[in-house]
Amino acid sequence: MVRLPGSEGEECPYLRPGLATGQGALGAAVYCGLPGGRARIPSRDEFERFCATGHYHDCPGYRRARLRETIVTGLAR
């Protein structure tokens, strides 16, 4: 998990630090480390709306990942 300077609230469990050279438009080097080894780079809008404010529960990527984990966990039983 990553702690972003100036971020409010709780951090998304999927948010990971990225390479400093990959800061690009976000101004922060982060990516979503999703289940199954998949990675996703949030858009600037998604980052500002969900990642940096603690509202990650509303993020479509977070919701898909949680649903996938729930289904896979249910099938493993």
Characterize the structure shown.
By secondary structure, this protein is α+β, with helices and mostly antiparallel strands. Helix content is 32%, strand content 12%. It has one domain. The termini are far apart.
Radius of gyration: 13 Å
Number of helices: 2
The shape is: globular
Largest sheet: 3 strands, antiparallel
Helix content: 25-40%
Major β-sheet strand ordering: 1-2-3
- Structural class call reads alpha+beta
Low-confidence stretches: none
Query: How many domains?
Result: 1
Q: What's the pLDDT, averaged over the residues?
A: 79
The span between the termini is: 28 Å
Number of β-strand runs:
3
Order of helices and strands: EEEHH
Strand content: 5-15%
